[in-house]
Each structure stands twice: as structure tokens, then as C-alpha cells.
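Late entry, written up from scratch paper. The run itself happened at the end of the previous shift, but nothing got recorded in the book at the time, so transcribing now.
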Amino acid sequence: MAGHRPWRDIRAGRERRIEAEHGTEALNEHRKRMDQATTESRDRYERQQRTLAELRKARELTQIGVGERLGVSQPQVSRIENSADLYLSTLHRYVEALEGTVEIVVRFPDGEAVPLDLSQLLNNRDTDSDEPTTAVTSDSDDLAQVRAQLDELRATVAAFTTAATNTSEPTTTAAAQAS
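Output as recorded:
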């Protein structure tokens, strides 16, 4: 990837600058602070780390109760809780069902912490679907037309299915209803 620099090279450059500008003692102090921050962060993470199931149980909710709030079945809630990889939107909806909020903070090795606005991230996807979406700008009218055509097609299929179950001549009845 063009312009990519390994983190170890970036860190080494920063440490060279610190040593050149402030001396070896300042560099040693910087390394000590970074190691301490990393250790504290890791310890805090391990103390606070909980599974989704533990969060649900702490809120005194059952999988059935969470499923009712999400509009999904109990087995689906179990799949969410045991999933190794979730969409952010799925995690967001699950935590909302527990009456909580999700906050994402990106932590860098130098100690910098940057919060991400989850609502902004989720506004960039269709939350009714677990399929990744693409940005629609000038093609939004085309997308509306495709959706309208899809709705018409669904209505035609539904009419055909209804006609097929109610008559012995499904083809003529469905053709008449579709036109």
C-alpha cells in the first residue's frame, strides 16, 4: 500500500526526536509512561470485559425477552451472543434492547483516545439489513425506481400465488390480475 509505514518505524522516529530534543532520560521516562498506560489500559479492559450474555443476565433479561425487544427469535439472540464477529448495527440494536448505549473509543499506543460517533457510523448503512450498503448519491432516483418495480413484482407474485391456491386455472386468473 502506497504511503504505508509500519508502526514500529513511526514509533522509532518519535523516540529519536524525543531523545534528540530532550535527552536519554526523557526518552526513558516516555517509554515508562507508554508501558504504564498500556498495562493500565489492558488491565482495565480485562476487568470490564464481559460477554453479551453476561450483560443480558446482569440486566435480568432472558434471551426470549431480548428477542421480543429486537423482533427476533430466541435462537437468533443466542447466535448474536455467541457470534465471533458482529456488525456494529447488530451490536447497537442488541445493547439498545438492554436499554444501554454503545460507545467506541479508539486507543493508540501513545495513549491518545479518540471516541467514534456510532450513530454517525450507523447512518451510513441501512439498519434494516445486515448486508453492507454503498453510498447512493446521484443514483437515488434509480434506486427508488428499482424498489418500486420490486414492490410491483412482489404484488404480482402474491396475486399469482393467491390465484393458484383459489382456482383450478391459476395461469389465466393470475394473468388477468397482473394486467
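The first helix runs from residue 7 to 22.
(Scratch paper discarded after transcription.)
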